[in-house]
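#onboarding

Welcome to the new folks! Below is a worked example of what a typical request in this channel looks like: someone posts a single protein sequence, and someone else replies with the predicted structure as tokens. Don't worry about understanding the tokens yet, we'll cover that in week two.

Example request:
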Amino acid sequence: MVKILTSAPLAKLGLIAAALVLFAGCSSNPPTATTSSGSPAATTAATTDKKALKDVRVQLSFLMQSLDAPLIVAINKGYFAEEGLNVTYERGFGNVDTISKLGTGKFDLAFSDMYNAMDFNDKNPNDKIIAVAVTQNKAPFAVMGFKDKGINSPKDLNGKKMGAPAGDGPRKLFPLFAEEVGVDANSIEWTTMEPKLRETFLLQGKVDAISGFSTSALPSLLKGGKKMEDISLFYYTENGLDFYGNAILTKEAFAKQNPDVVKAFVKAYFRGLQDVLKDPSGGLDAVLAADQSKLMDRNAEKVRLEIALKDLYITPEVEKNGLGYLDPKRMEETIAQTVKGFKLKGKPTVADIYTDEFLPPKEQRALPPTSERKPLS
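Example response:
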């Protein structure tokens, strides 16, 4: 900060003023990425030029979590700004709500799953949503129960009471899971509750098992006093339903009108994800620092990110084909299962829900070498 003293001679004032003008002409402040409330989320590191940044509104799938580290890191390091974007984000209220708001045009891009998006498209065929990149190669869809309550294998679910919110994707797909593991879906008694009460119902013994995302439920169960060895965890992906997890979604109309924006966002996001895979502890710290509520539990968020690193981000398919990739044959199978599980009227194709035209070249989406991946601490 420069202070100009009123007692200084006029000539000296003139020199200082000239110096200030020259200084201003040789420097510029970096743009600031903000949350939807307008408060700074992070200051970008640098920009490639002084052109005005394009505003991009993004909705998360739920409350900001450690799974959002790639987005936060990409903002903090200026990756979006380098691509000409000013990214703002807002919390979500679950995948169904996120997709609904994306459909209204309130947001330009969102993080959610392709299967609820197909359900949306089935009901809104003229206002289609598409996925432009897969962020989680495996879906965290799962059924969870406690071993000391007799839930040791999927078949132990027969005749039990299960809990989940009404719009829960894994609940909608449970009949398919049941068919794969030999459970009579009609023998299940379902209890419906708000998402925030799901794990509480299980901990209190009001239900025998729950369906949901492992990334959401496990941290809460552990925080509630359980240990991993106490919990029976049955992933859908390990029982005949090889679904992808969340993806970057946008309206088809927005992608057609703003192809460069979508490409730029995807490119910068994957740079952030690569950094998180190299230094997950740094990614976790970035999310905690960006949490304006200061209520996030580091241990819970660490568990969530550990699950993602182990089960969702790094898989043989990603090792071979790079981040963001989608295998058409695998997707065809899950589309058929979605049509059946969600009771869709239409029969969408892979091209109806996903396109790879916005992905960066494969070499730019490669997983960091194993030697460069630090452990999460």
